[in-house]
Amino acid sequence: MNRVTEMFRGLRAILGRGTSLVTLRGMVAVIGILLVGSVLSLIPYLGSSAELVRLRNALLLDAAPLDASWAGSGFPHDFRMDSAPFPQSFVAFVQTHSGQAIHGDWERSVSLASALIPDRGQRRAGAIQSSMTQTLERIMARGDGYCGDYADVFAGLMSVAGIQSRRWSFSFDQFGGHGHIFNEVWDAPSSSWRMLDLQHNFFPANPEGIPLSALQFRSAILSGDRVSLLPIDQAAAFGFKTNEDAIGYYHRGLQGWYMTWGNNLFEQDRVWAANLLAPLHRALEQLAVIFSGKSPGIRLMVDEHNHDAADRLLALRHRLLLISLLILLFGAAVSALVVRALIRKRL
Predict the structure, then answer these.
(1) Which domain range does residue 146 map to?
(2) N or C: which end of the chain has fewer CB within 10 A?
(3) Residue 115 to residues 59, 92, 97, 101, 145: CA-CA distances in angstroms?
């Protein structure tokens, strides 16, 4: 009993003799009011999946400027990568569709992408939003999936195949959820990045048929240069009615480009809290990955046309960080209030 009494006396000393219950209750009330007001300010973002993506992007925003000029052989030190062991289904897929008879990074990439894209009449609409292994299984078995599903699975296949890749995104709504995701692979023999859009089944090329990088494609759209859109898989349907429709689609998103700063997708699948929350809601699953520290950031392509939108996303990030701080302070204040009340009761 004496030890218990001494423990409570020690806690009282830590909290301070001048800290009264009235003071602590006032702190809890003030912090609680600030927290409720801050949370209520997020209500407009909770009504649609596109706005939830904006919240996610704000949490993942990396204020460092986007420099995409690095070569695939020299990834930035903070670009997050997956490493072996990889899921057996991905290893088997790479072994089956990228055998020794296929030489060259680009040729192997196209072979794997072609095997992943459903043939005409087999594609079904609907986002999968599941683990990497389940997403690969549903794409192959049923033709399900949106752009993000194909981009993620293809990035995973590239990691297994030992081919460097990166994922680009663009939005039509100032870095929200209305947009598109596609891939880029590093072709070592040509020392160049080459873009692939798996959902729409094409890769851009110059008039001579040489594949373009994502930034070369973007530059060509801006300047109005002629670009060829060549099929990844001859047996699969093109994602647009005409090439002009595809160019127009990308043109609409030119001011919303950003890059996901990592490909550690299998590592994210292993976050236990995310697996626990996945059946409840996709947003909760992603939030668990973010707070686990396993989710890579995003870096925006900012210029004079979209810096206001970038600033608004940064301001939203600051608001979310403030809410996180208020939650911690509220929890600490409530804990102090409970401990202070126990001390008074004990002593």
Answers:
(1) 66-301
(2) N
(3) 34, 13, 7, 15, 15
